Amino acid sequence: MLNEFSRTRMLLGDDAMARLASARVAVFGVGGVGGYVVEALARSGVGALELIDDDAVSLTNINRQIIALHSTVGMPKVDAARARVLDICPKTQVIAHRAFFTPETAAQFDFTQYSYVVDAIDTVSGKIELAVRAHAAGVPILSCMGAGNKLDPTAFEVTDISNTSVDPLARVMRRELRKRGIDHLTVVYSKEPARTPLPDPDVEAEKGKRRSVPASNAFVPAVAGLIAASKVIRDLADCENT
Predict the structure, then answer these.
(1) C-alpha pair distances (Å), 65 with each of 46, 62, 68, 222
(2) 131 and 138 in contact (C-beta within 8 Å)?
């Protein structure tokens, strides 16, 4: 019987599709990278999604975020993402948390309920806490490293954080996680050195007191997000054994 995922079933088979349908994936951060993660998970038949983000869609998101349209400017990102997922597959269970994930708010989330966690947030403290919580719960996690100020989408790869180089965020994460007894973390990252963005007073004013505002484009965050989603989908579907 035809449905939204018939073409995917032709590639993965019924058992893999059943595993995807029974999975619950939490995506922390649904912006430039995370929005494409959510998109691919929804279009692949993941049965339940929890979306966590405190931000609202802004005009400057339109150049790179799949949920950002003139019609969604001002809307909470999790609400825009939820509406998009349900338009793709109305049967998907979607819980939207408008929340800023930090070590202080981490207790709001029960990691034992997740089949997989995707970290697509920006703050180092939050990313470390996500890794710690997922590790404690025994839940697989994929963490996305820096995508801002980069131009080469072909440079992204999936690897263990112990194998990363060049990326300063990965370096900090690696050091801090080792202090916490965590030596391994699957990441999506790029060895491309970050470029120095040109100043734009209007963008900087929009972001307020943020120390630096990264430049971005339509293709680098998208590719990083789709690579991350492909890893999650292949792991959940157990593609290597189908």
Answers:
(1) 21, 6, 5, 8
(2) no
Indicate the pairing of strand 156-160 with strand 186-190: antiparallel
* Residues whose CB falls within 8 Å of the CB of residue 199, separated by 6 or more in sequence, listed in order: none
CB 28 within 8 A of CB 119: yes
| 45-101 per-position pLDDT tens digit | 999 999 999 999 999 999 999 999 999 999 999 999 999 999 999 999 999 999 999
Secondary structure class of 140 (helix, strand, coil):
coil
Q: Going by DSSP bridges, is the β-strand pair 141-144/93-97 parallel, antiparallel, or unpaired?
A: unpaired
The closest of 134, 95, 117, 121 to 26, measured between CA atoms, is 117
Q: CA 41, CA 118: separation in Å to the nearest integer?
A: 11
Decide if domain 6-236 falls under CATH 3.40.50.720: yes
- Please give the Cα distance from 175 to 212 (Å, whole number): 23
Give residue-wise pLDDT tens across range 197-218.
Answer: 998 887 877 666 556 789 999 9
Residue 96, C-beta contacts closer than 8 angstroms, at least 6 positions apart: 51, 76, 78, 79, 81, 82
CA–CA distance, 68 with 38 (Å, rounded to integer): 13
Helices (H), the chain: 6-12, 14-21, 34-43, 77-88, 124-137, 168-179, 201-207, 220-237
